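Weekly sync, protein design subgroup
Attendees: M.S., D.O., the rotation student, P.L. (late)

Item 1: inverse folding check
M.S. brought a backbone from last month's batch and wanted to see whether the design step gives back something sensible before we order anything. D.O. pointed out we never logged the input encoding, so this time it goes straight into the notes. Structure tokens as presented (240 positions):
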């Protein structure tokens, strides 16, 4: 049975994540950073941080009501919780940087505010840890967790949880590819073709996989997958 006791490992993990999130915010008050992508500055605001933690906690409770794996669930091994997500994240990271290394093809992000979308090392480490926590709380706990619970519990009275999860997961996975879809439409591509193209992209597919990983192995698993990807793409790759 789910418990929010401080003796519970999942509760402890949640508190550690929240503390790291807040400490990184304090770090960037002392050592400001230039935000490379539009909208990132807003994410670091105190209001957004408070909303993220509050809604994330609500989303976490929602996931417990609909059978998502707990953060430190005893029947889930550390291979499932950490190793598999690390491998998936590294593979995704390598696929992301491969065309840029082989073909020198480095398309600019549609929301980029300057030529380089990466924060410079060593600030890249806390910056993308913060970004990982924000994105995973927002996408997995708030969007997928809360919406799946609302639809399955309030509308369908506890039925079709698995079906609703997959529908929500497929829709939420468009969040990150959406700027690319909008860019394609702006250049003359039809909305249908633009959307279909992005659905075949590694970005969209990885989001689908990450959603499943979070449900099956817990929030720490999807967090680890994104952090591994960011380590390759945003931290290590820009050093070379």
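Designed sequence read out in the meeting:
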């Amino acid at each position: 049975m789910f418990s929010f006791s401080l003796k519970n490992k999942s509760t402890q993990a949640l508190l550690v994540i929240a503390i790291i999130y807040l400490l990184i915010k304090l770090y960037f008050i002392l050592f400001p950073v230039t935000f490379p992508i539009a909208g990132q500055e807003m994410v670091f605001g105190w209001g957004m941080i408070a909303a993220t933690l509050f809604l994330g906690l609500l989303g976490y409770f929602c996931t417990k009501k609909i059978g998502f794996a707990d953060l430190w669930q005893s029947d889930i091994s550390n291979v499932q919780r950490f190793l598999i997500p690390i491998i998936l994240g590294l593979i995704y990271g390598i696929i992301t940087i491969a065309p840029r290394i082989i073909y020198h093809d480095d398309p600019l992000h549609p929301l980029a505010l300057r030529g380089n979308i990466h924060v410079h090392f060593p600030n890249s480490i806390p910056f993308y840890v913060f970004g990982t926590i924000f994105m995973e709380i927002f996408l997995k706990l708030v969007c997928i967790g809360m919406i799946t619970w609302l639809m399955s519990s309030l509308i369908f009275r506890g039925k079709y949880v698995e079906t609703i999860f997959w529908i929500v997961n497929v829709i939420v996975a468009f969040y990150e590819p959406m700027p690319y879809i909008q860019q394609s439409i702006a250049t003359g591509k039809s909305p249908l073709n633009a959307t279909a193209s992005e659905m075949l992209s590694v970005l969209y597919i990885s989001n689908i996989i990450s959603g499943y990983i979070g449900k099956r192995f817990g929030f720490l698993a999807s967090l680890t997958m994104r952090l591994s990807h960011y380590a390759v793409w945003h931290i290590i790759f820009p050093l070379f």
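Discussion: The CA atoms of residues 87 and 225 lie 8 Å apart. The mean pLDDT is 93.
Action: P.L. to compare against the previous round before Friday.
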